[in-house]
Amino acid sequence: MNTTLNAKRIAVVGLGLSGLATVRFLLAQGVKPVLMDSRPKPAGLEQIAADKVDGIYLGEFDANRLAQMDMIILSPGLAVSHPAIRFAKAQGVEVIGDVELFARFNQKPVIAITGSNGKSTVTSLVTDMLLQSGINALAAGNIGLPVLDALRQLDTDVFVLELSSFQLDTISSLQSRASCLLNVSADHLDRYADMAAYTASKQQVFQHTALTVYNQADVRTYPGATAGNAARIAISLLTTEFTAGAAIDSQADYGITEYQGERWLKVAGTPLLAISKLALSGSHNQFNALAAAALALSVGASRDAIATTLQRFTGLAHRCQLVLSHKGIRWVNDSKATNIGATLAAIAGLKPEVSGKLILIAGGDAKGADVSELQPVLQRDVNYLITLGQDGPAIAALYPQAIQVKDIVAAVQQAVKLAKNGDMVLLSPACASLDMFKSYVHRGELFAKTVQELAL
């Protein structure tokens, strides 16, 4: 493969984390790529010696220069529909992403995970389940570690890849032992023409896989033509009675079962763990646990290791994370809820655990989504709504007596005035953060810091 690359004129377009990892990988293969980025000073570019590459071009993309390439390796942050990229494709230039380049070199088993929400949690769970089983698994992709940096870690047994729709748009040959589409809800509609286009992007995860894992309650996740004849596992939260003596079958149903007077996770047809022993809270995390179990079993994890992981794994930062419990009030940071589906899942999962009132803080950049989808749940399950950000007014319009504030500090101040013993204050924005913050992490950290300062 590297011989083929050496014969090509290659441009790396977009020099973020994955772009710089791509440059490092190409240099290690003896390839001197052309580098391009629309920003005048991309962070980290100083790490690349200018004499090792075939030119660095910053600012507006030169479509004619791109059209002279044989291959463009495109950052997931840049759309294939960008005019300069589209022009190059029309001239016959191959456009791929770093995950596709990974796929062409990789020879290890892959688990591929996508979905509008929950994919980082499931990716982390699967990785931990495999490590607990003695299998050297490595999480990479959208979760943080670029796939081409991961590929250089030669002692890896299994790659567990979190894949965004943007990454899936530029893959064609990734093969996986198992792949999962957790859910599909409105997101990135500022980049995709409609929900059908966004769903089709997510469905790409089912290409060239041996096993598909999907959501019984979400028809958009059902494997279509891209899945071919792959085996299928549907994950469901429906509760059934368990019949003693049933055999373990990896293709059997995954869901919730009544067993020994409790509700248990049912994995491969048999009870695995009482839900009361799960370290994660909420029904959405019961679903995530089941999906992770199915994926981990497909590459050799043990049931004991899966159960142990589920009793220890307390969740990821900024994903339904309890930041303070004081005076009977719980403050939960779900800043990673950057779309409507994530917020709906958080409310559905946490509301049954709230003995008092649920106070929701929401708002930010809705990325073109129709926020009216929130209205039925807001009016049924939320007792107080506090909004902020660019699309805060649109969300506030869905709820009588919504309180609009200018920033996260003011939001916490309002919540402190409202909250009483038994209540939960939930930051779950249903929106991206970049209208007001550096990232969802920055938003969550500021929320947690403000809560510690004002709610104690």
Describe the structure in your own words.
The chain has 456 residues and is of the alpha/beta class. The chain contains 16 helices and 20 strands. The strands form 3 sheets. Strands 7-8-6-9-10-11-12-13-14 form a 9-stranded mixed β-sheet, covered by helices on one side. Strands 15-16-20-17-18-19 form a 6-stranded mixed β-sheet. Helix 7 links the parallel strand 7 (137-141) and strand 8 (158-162). The longest helix has 15 residues, at 283-297. It is globular, with a radius of gyration of 23 Å.
Largest sheet: 9 strands, mixed
What's the pLDDT, averaged over the residues?
93
Spatial separation of the terminal alpha carbons: 59 Å
What is the level-2 CATH architecture name of the largest domain? 3-Layer(aba) Sandwich
Short description:
With 456 residues, the chain is of the alpha/beta class. It contains 16 helices and 20 strands.
Layout of helices and strands:
Blueprint: H1 2-6, E1 10-13, H2 17-28, E2 34-37, E3 56-58, H3 63-67, E4 71-74, H4 83-90, E5 94-96, H5 98-105, E6 110-114, H6 119-132, E7 137-141, H7 147-150, E8 158-162, H8 165-168, E9 178-181, H9 195-203, E10 211-215, E11 231-241, E12 254-259, E13 262-267, E14 270-274, H10 283-297, H11 303-312, E15 321-326, E16 329-333, H12 340-350, E17 358-362, H13 375-381, E18 384-387, H14 392-396, E19 403-404, H15 408-418, E20 424-427, H16 440-454
Parallel strand pairs: 1-2, 1-4, 2-3, 4-5, 6-8, 6-9, 7-8, 9-10, 10-11, 11-12, 16-20, 17-18, 17-20, 18-19
Antiparallel strand pairs: 12-13, 13-14, 15-16
